[in-house]
Amino acid sequence: MDRQGPYKAYQALLDRGDIQPDPAQAQAMEKLQGLAAGLAEYAPHMGKQGWMARLNPGRKKVPVPKGIYLWGGVGRGKSMLMDLFFDTAGIKDRKRVHFHAFMQEVQRRLHSFREAVKAGRASAKTDPLVALSRVITGRGWILCFDEFHVTDIADAMILGRLFEALFEAGVVVVATSNRPPRDLYKDGLQRENFLPFIGLIEEKLEVLELDAGIDYRLDKLKTMDVYLTPADAETDKKLDADFHALSIGGHARPVSLEVQGRKVEIPKVAEGVAFADFADLCAKPLGPGDFLAIASNFHTLVLGRIPKLGPENRNEAKRFVTLIDALYEAKVNLICSADAPPEALYTEGDGAFEFERTASRLMEMQSTDYMALPHAG
User: Fold this and answer.
1) Count of domains for the chain
2) Which of 210-236 are b and which e, b meaning 16 or more Cβ less than 10 Å from the residue's Cβ?
3) Which residues constitute the domain of residue 72?
4) pTM of the entire structure?
């Protein structure tokens, strides 16, 4: 864990020329630096022993530092800034998670609790959200949520109670989102019941807008060859360089997405960009739900080593078609290397005719118009 602090890490990226000066980013980094300093004083009151002491009604509570909610358009560097904070704030008991994946786990645990009550293994008098908040806090009292958004009524109805319990336990939250808090779950069913949660977020987190400006992601994509042939050692190096450029380099980590109790492993992820080989996704028994999860969680996929397709790898070809459909519908950007151009990837076999639509989509996904579309995940 780097202890140099978020702002120094940000300045190092500027000095190396990895990013360009941006007043809104610099202001956000000053706020994140201030939060990191406050957490250094707050940390002794938290951790595995401290947070339980905070729950003791007879103990005087220490003020909780205000978290930060970063919002703005795609490509403004929100995830990069949060990652710099996460990696350099110097706090051990922390957790970073994509908000969609977090809510999937919450719903799964609530389902397991309800089943335990039915089976007589848990008391119906227990508030499951309070119990779950203690489990979450035990894993980390700094929670960093990437791509905070709410579209599901089941999520909307439990968020207020869950986050009340988390904040009561002393948790500090840093979040990124494409929307300000007031626009979360906009036009959703029973939204009036969700409004107290918005008020809670605005009370406990400082809301910072990375104002509309340059879409750094799109600017970089415009300079890249997004469909590389052939798939060989040279194009492998180009894909690595593209991933580094899009992810600001140095903050990549493997990620496991949980989909209906299964783990979907992504070898490398940073700044909303996923990196995998064709074999990682299409040579494994993954299905539509898995590919939808990938499309929902990442705005860009770097995919290497797509082979020629035909009767000998028919199953892999079917999965590839399903993957491209999911990416296309969610407006995910695709950077890839393949053994042939789209129209020549699948020319023989019982799926060749159906692949014409996939080839057409692969060609459209190379266009600037497509790449400029907002991620719909």
Assistant:
1) 2
2) beeeebbbeeebeebebbbbebeeebe
3) 6-210
4) 0.76
Q: C-alpha distances in angstroms, 298 versus 120, 221, 266, 326?
A: 40, 15, 11, 12
Whether the CB-CB separation of 282 and 312 falls below 8 Å is answered with no
Range of weakest confidence among 150-154, 198-202, 358-362: 150-154
How far, in Å, CA of 187 to CA of 191, rounded? 7
Asked whether residue 47 carries a pLDDT value surpassing 90, the answer given is no
The answer to whether residues 339 and 308 touch, using CB atoms and an 8 Å cutoff, is yes
The pLDDT, as a whole number, for residue 55 is 53
CA-CA-CA-CA torsion sign (354, 358, 361, 366): negative
Question: In this model, does residue 210 exceed pLDDT 70?
Answer: yes
**Nearest by Cα to 103 from 142, 178, 154, 173:** 154
- Give the long-range contacts of residues 235-239, CB within 8 A, separation 24 or more: 235/304, 235/337, 236/304, 236/305, 236/337, 238/337, 239/275, 239/302, 239/304, 239/335, 239/336, 239/337
Are 193 and 257 found together in one domain? no
Alpha carbon distance 184, 197 (integer Å): 10
CB within 8 A of 168, min separation 6: which ones?
55, 133
- Alpha helices of 177-247 — where are they, by DSSP H? 195-204, 216-222, 233-246
Domain co-membership, 140 together with 204: yes
In the predicted model, is pLDDT for residue 376 greater than 70?
A: yes
Among 177, 210, 243, identify where a domain stops.
210
Instruction: Categorize the per-residue pLDDT at 1 as very low, low, confident or very high, splitting at 50, 70 and 90.
Output: very low
Domain's final residue, options 155, 179, 210? 210
The DSSP secondary structure of 269-298, one letter per residue, reads EETTEEEEEHHHHHSS---HHHHHHHHHH-
Q: Establish if 377 belongs to a structural domain.
A: no
Task: Give the list of residues 6+ apart from residue 53 with CB closer than 8 angstroms, or none.
Answer: 45, 59
Averaged pLDDT for residues 224-233: 96
d(CA 188, CA 211) in angstroms, rounded, equals: 26
pLDDT digits (tens, 9 = 90+) for 121-131: 888 888 999 99
CB burial readout 345-358, b (16+ within 10 A) else e: bbeeeebbeebeeb
Tell me the two tokens of residue 343. Answer: 């129209």
